[in-house]
Amino acid sequence: MPLASTKTHRQSAVEETIARYPDVPRFVIIKTDVQRRGVFYTDEALGLLDERLHQTTGTHIFGARDGRIAARPESLLLRDGSSIITTPTPLEENPYVVDLLDGQPWLFDAGEPVEEVDYWPAPAFYAKTSRSGVPMKNIVSARPQRLNIFPYRYCTFWNNGKGCSFCDIVEQLKKGGKELQIPARLDPVEVGEVVQEALREPGRFSSVFLTSGSIVGGKQPFDDEVDYYIDILKEVGKNFRTAKYPSQLIGTAFTKEQLQRLHGETGLTSYTSDIEVLDEELFNQYCPGKAEWIGYQEWKRRLVDAVEVFGPGRVNTGLVAGIELAGPRGIASEDEALQRTLAEAEDLARQGVSTVFIVWSPRPHTPLGQYKNASLDYYIRLTRGLHALRIKYRLPIDHDSYRNCGNHPDSDLSRLLPLWEE
Asked: pLDDT tens across 165-185, in order?
């Protein structure tokens, strides 16, 4: 039997929160709460999933909140066209339930229908295989309007056990390789060929996105990572008529010389380097590999250097929002966490670097997996705060917006940015 099947009229908890924040769109608040709590699919909802028509989970470099790999919807679409990047979550953790209402998938909260959703449609190339016989969807995956390339599914910070405390990339690599036959390292030429096939659907995709785990090797630290990205981006670039094409790289905090190579030798147009948490003490604690090889202050300096290479509004950093409150050394209160985070974000914003966040989703088999993420109110206040900084410092976020990413509640508000006076 489905867990929820009929419409009722009692106002849900999220609707009460929506009423308190009239300046934040309803869909952004719903999306944030769904990311915060996760989802559980009923059998009836899974019965609607058609792998010929819909994208199913499997290509992420990070795992699900319930620790499983299974044929479930890759994620969800809201009626305003925005995406919810969410993760299947055990029912005992109080997630939203995706169930059917009048034959359509809906989000339910405590049995109450909240919002109609849809599953991501599968692009045509998902049904094809590469020249090496690998399913193309395991080489290049898709969000509704973006092509994703995850070329290296390992992070060498884990070589000495100093990977980030919220990260399950190694666990997912083990599962993905065994259960889904996803290559641990992609061939750049093959990546370019799959992108060529994907682009046969005119108008489907608006950008190309590339990220992987850090690679510390090379003549200078991270040269091997930069070289690998350049090889891939050059192959992808063969599919475009112009030297530059809409693209985003999330990589390690590279030196200015490395950044100049990435920008000068490829079609890359925007750069992101995730600092994860805007607090030096917590950065050292939760990101020990990043602290060992680069350090908090140097990470920030390299982000600012990137603005000189890519330009203001083309560089940002990401937070795993909520980890700053987790664990015995976490910040004591949400008010304090918000103040400290926004102060550091403003220091970056005035130098041309934008900050976005994802809602932390605690994963099993990670050092922080036993802790809870922050309240919905905290995430809404952080959303408003980061959005206000982009307005104050005139920082567009088009390369990481709701259309090109869909994983940042704060950049979803970019649709509301005023046309500031020149």
From this structure: 999 887 777 766 556 677 789
pLDDT higher than threshold 80 for residue 63: no
Task: Give me the torsion for CA of 250, 191, 66, 317, rounded to 10°.
Answer: 10
Contact 37, 77 (CB under 8 A): no
B/e letters for 81-112, b = 16+ CB within 10 Å, e = fewer, are: ebbbbbbbbeeeeebbbbbbbeeebbbbbeeb
CA 330 to chain centre: 23
End-to-end CA distance of the chain: 59
**What confidence tens digit (pLDDT) does each residue in 190-243 have?**
999 999 999 999 989 999 999 999 999 999 999 999 999 999 999 999 999 999
Q: Which residue has the tokens 């106002």?
A: 11
Residue-level pLDDT at 184? 83
Beta bridge partners of 129: 135
Query: Can you give the residue ranges of every domain in the chain?
Result: 13-119, 124-415
Q: What confidence score (pLDDT) does residue 273 get?
A: 98
Tokens of 154: 């390992």
Q: Quick one: pLDDT band at residue 9, thresholds 50, 70, 90? A: very low
Q: Which CATH superfamily is domain 124-415 in?
A: Aldolase class I (3.20.20.70)
What pLDDT is attached to residue 1?
38
